[in-house]
Amino acid sequence: MDKNREYFIIENHSIIKKVRIIKFIGGLYTINIEGTSKYLRVHPSRIYSTYTDASGDAGSGKNKYGTERMKNGQLL
């Protein structure tokens, strides 16, 4: 993945945020959430190249255990 290019991540299973990659160290990307001074270290599988890719996974509503989740993150 390239630095200084727009990417997207999903926060709280439903909120899509625009991010920029700062660096890659130890198998994790350091990213900056656009419009804030917040920096995160995330696994490459959490980064999406387009908004439509991210919105497809955000809208699924299922976690890896097969249980449904509500928008606020509480289990049904």
Characterization of this structure:
- The protein is mostly beta strands and 76 residues long.
- It has a domain at 6-58: SH3 type barrels (Roll), CATH 2.30.30.
- 11% of the residues lie in helices and 36% in strands.
- It has one helix and four strands, in the order ββββα.
- Strands 1-2-3-4 form a four-stranded antiparallel sheet.
- A hairpin with a 2-residue loop joins β2 and β3.
- The longest helix is centred in the last third of the chain and has 8 residues, at 51-58.
- It is globular and about 30 Å long.
How large is the share of residues in beta strands? 35-45%
CATH architecture of one domain: Roll
Mean pLDDT: 80
Spatial strand sequence of the major β-sheet: 1-2-3-4
Structural class: mainly beta
Terminal residue distance? 36 Å
